[in-house]
């Protein structure tokens, strides 16, 4: 990039790959369309069932390891009842599920419990989920989680919100599950619907329990426990729990 001067940093000429592509505010070459095909079909995962978003357990009561609070996570524990072979999430907990979606390993969701994530009246699914960008679902009940997850799988990636057994909003991101090839105004409108639908099912509590927290909750390179497609991982202490069930009785 060649500037007129170092005060205003107004670009005068842009050269890329040895060719002048822009000069004095005008393109010198016509951009060529790129084939998006290699970036599509990245949802290597089958449709999911309601039971995929439950925590299996034996006995009548269990101790469950939890991921306590957003952003600066720490380990927690709760006691929960078991019914028909599945844990009943205690009041004050939120379900989180992460499923490998890149086709390299088993795509069965690993389900855990969050604490201090508010009361959820539905579910949100996203494939924008740092850093592995797996299928990640947050929710107050398995039914809405399955609805949101399957909508995202069908869309080829993206974000979806479900509540009361129905799909409320969908933002398809078919390029790697991260980017849309739709017009910007259409993407903006769809994203605004995602935001509004999410705001309707969870009560945010800034500065940490905010919409942005959804996209970093699985960032397992950070200190503390984080849900991953292999279970709850904590790089700080070198711990991995494939199931959050610690004990049963």
Describe the structure.
The chain is mainly β and 249 residues long. The chain folds into two domains: 31 residues, no CATH class; 192 residues, no CATH class. The chain contains two helices and 17 strands. Strands 5, 6, 7, 8, 9, 10, 11, 12, 13 and 17 form a ten-stranded mixed β-sheet that branches. Strands 1-2-3-4 form a four-stranded antiparallel β-sheet, with no helix packed on it. The longest helix has 18 residues. The chain is elongated and about 75 Å long. The relative contact order is 0.17.
Measured by DSSP, the beta-strand proportion falls in: 25-35%
How many helix segments?
2
Number of domains: 2
Characterize the main sheet: 10 strands, mixed
H/E element sequence: EEEEEEEEEEEHEEHEEEE
Domain Adenine deaminase C-terminal: 72-236
Protein name: Adenine deaminase
Pfam family, one: Adenine_deam_C
InterPro entries: Adenine_deam_C (IPR026912)
Question: Can you lay out the helices and strands and say which pair or pack?
Answer:
Layout: E1 2-3, E2 11-16, E3 19-23, E4 26-27, E5 61-68, E6 74-83, E7 86-87, E8 93-99, E9 110-115, E10 123-126, E11 135-139, H1 142-155, E12 158-163, E13 166-172, H2 184-201, E14 226-228, E15 231-234, E16 239-241, E17 245-248
Parallel strand pairs: 5-9
Antiparallel strand pairs: 1-2, 2-3, 3-4, 5-6, 5-17, 6-7, 8-9, 8-11, 10-11, 10-12, 12-13, 14-15, 15-16
